[in-house]
From TrEMBL:
The keyword Secreted appears for this protein: no
Organism in which the protein naturally occurs: Kwoniella shivajii
GO molecular function: kinase activity
EC supergroup of this enzyme: transferase
Name of the featured protein: guanylate kinase
Keywords, alphabetical: ATP-binding, Kinase, Nucleotide-binding, Transferase
Family named by the database record: Belongs to the guanylate kinase family.
Length: 219
């Protein structure tokens, strides 16, 4: 990707929401994007009710809060998305996003978070206008191979991820994202992600057509 292409500065104010099934390659591609553009992008610091682990600092890895404080913030409508896992609450506040300015905020959130963000973003003052990007595997077979090939998951965890992948792909097939990128070749997908994330000219139309997935293969 040529660095000489003009950057559309308006689009950089729009949070970039990177969606896609676990194992598609989100972390791989985002790590490269951040390394290629230091200081350009920011990840928000989430709130959690879980206890800090040794070495964790309040405000750095997480904002550590009590359940009462968390629920008060929920009641105040401060979260763009939140969920409870394993007895603890985790969530992203709108304030955590705006704190990143002028860096472009990148969110890597799951379907539940995307749905919450969709219903709340336009109600903010000023309204948030996220760009929703779906990173797709080239096929379900490849997704399964990448998940098991990573060597980080137990069989149970792979099963859970494939169930979630089914919902993610079914939602993507409804055509609700702004851009779709198929991660077949890392270099090609990385160049497209860079174009979208940097708001380079033509970013809206650089995406791919979704492969014809048979989601039954995920059952
Ligand atoms: N284009 C590609 N070609 C071949 N292998 C790839 C490609 N993209 C990613 N991989 C490999 O697939 C595996 C899954 O990638 P990665 O961990 O980035 O997925 P992820 O979407 O971030 O998953 P999670 O949401 O679980 O963190 C990794 O082992 C990675 O090296």
């Amino acid at each position: 990707m040529s660095q000489a292409q003009p950057i559309n500065s308006e689009v950089l104010n729009r949070p970039l929401v990177v969606c896609g099934p676990s194992g598609t390659g989100k972390s791989t591609l985002l790590t490269k994007l951040f390394a290629d553009h230091p200081g350009q992008f920011g990840f928000s610091v989430s709130h959690t009710t879980r206890n800090p682990r040794s070495g964790e600092e309040n405000g750095k890895q997480y904002h550590f809060v009590t359940r009462d404080e968390f629920m008060e913030r929920v009641g105040n409508g401060e979260f763009l998305e939140w969920a409870e896992f394993g007895g603890n609450c985790y969530g992203t506040t709108f304030a955590a996003l705006t704190a990143l300015y002028p860096r472009r905020c990148i969110l890597d959130i799951e379907l539940q978070g995307v749905l919450q963000l969709r219903s709340k973003a336009s109600l903010q003052t000023p309204p948030l206008d996220p760009v929703y990007l779906f990173l797709a595997p080239p096929s379900i077979e490849t997704l399964k191979a990448r998940l098991s090939g990573r060597g980080t998951e137990t069989d149970a965890s792979i099963r859970k991820r494939l169930d979630a992948a089914k919902a993610e792909i079914e939602y993507a097939l409804q055509g609700k994202h702004d851009v779709y990128i198929v991660n077949e070749d890392l270099k090609i997908a990385g160049d497209k992600l860079e174009k979208v994330a940097m708001g380079y000219q033509g970013w809206k139309d650089c995406g791919d057509k979704l492969p014809e997935f048979d989601v039954k293969e995920l059952e």
